[in-house]
């Protein structure tokens, strides 16, 4: 079982994100290096559709979000963590 984090962007995400991106990226790199973060990215229209990250466990997703500079500084207005059952395709 994996965990997916869905972020809903704040109304002014393009203005707010640059100031907090270096700290956000450092956190992404930390979680990726230890194998907890598997994938991350924005949707085609980040303002309207937000972004998504896939974590190895729900615990790692919850831990990431709890200290994410984008969450702490209002770059995202809301988030949701969903458990996700990965199906491998041959």
TrEMBL record:
<feature type="domain" description="YCII-related">
    <location>
        <begin position="1"/>
        <end position="85"/>
    </location>
</feature>
<dbReference type="InterPro" id="IPR005545">
    <property type="entry name" value="YCII"/>
</dbReference>
<comment type="similarity">
    <text>Belongs to the YciI family.</text>
</comment>
<dbReference type="InterPro" id="IPR011008">
    <property type="entry name" value="Dimeric_a/b-barrel"/>
</dbReference>
<protein>
    <recommendedName>
        <fullName>YCII-related domain-containing protein</fullName>
    </recommendedName>
</protein>
<dbReference type="Pfam" id="PF03795">
    <property type="entry name" value="YCII"/>
</dbReference>
